[in-house]
Structures are given as C-alpha cells and as structure tokens.
C-alpha cells in the first residue's frame, strides 16, 4: 500500500541516506592516503526499483533486493579527474557538490512524502 501512496519517494529517501553516508565518508577521508572515493548510481538504482516494482507488482519497492542476497547497494569507485601522488581519489569539490545535491534530493522526497501524508490525514479527518 505504501508504494501506491508514496511512489518511489520512500525508496529515494533510503538511497539518499545511503549516498549521504558514502559521500560524507569520502569528505572525511580526503587526506587519507590510498582512500578511494565511493558512490552509488542513485538514478540507476531508483530506475531499477521502479522497473522491478512494475514488473513484479510488489507492494513496496524495499521488498526487492538491489544487489546480491543481502540487499547491499552496489558501490562504485570514482575515477579521479586528476591523479594524486598518495593514491587518494577524493576531489573535495566534487564530493561537496554531490553531497549538497543529494541533500536537496532528500529534502524534495521528504517534502513529497510529508505532503502526501498531510493529504491522507485531511481525508481521514474529513477536511
């Protein structure tokens, strides 16, 4: 039922949370030798969840595992624009930009879920 009410916004919130964890880890480790910047392909994972939910008719997109049997997300390693002598692939500017963009995506989806919930509550109260 949640899928029919909120669409993929609930799944998008979960993906944004996972992505925020990866991006913040990248920023924190920007000076760590040999650290490899990591990310997920947010749009592909959301599209996959949409396609799988449509194809299988599941009641909630979170019921579908995104990778393997444990439900873990496929993590990608960022290819650096410029190589670093210590082997670190984090570009702080790119990571900060991606973090801000991800935070905005999270806020948009959270607002959508809140508005939808408010509509449901008004309908229940007969307003």
Automatic annotation (TrEMBL):
Metal-binding keyword on record: no
Entry keyword set: Bacterial flagellum, Cell projection, Cilium, Flagellum
Top-rank lineage group of the source organism: Bacteria
Subcellular location: Bacterial flagellum basal body
Primary subcellular site in the record, as a coarse category: other
Key word Transmembrane present: no
One GO term (biological process): bacterial-type flagellum-dependent cell motility
GO cellular component terms attached to this protein's record: bacterial-type flagellum basal body, rod
Quaternary data: The basal body constitutes a major portion of the flagellar organelle and consists of a number of rings mounted on a central rod.
Family from the record: Belongs to the flagella basal body rod proteins family.
UniProt protein name: Flagellar basal body rod protein FlgB
Lineage: Bacteria, Pseudomonadati, Pseudomonadota, Gammaproteobacteria, Legionellales
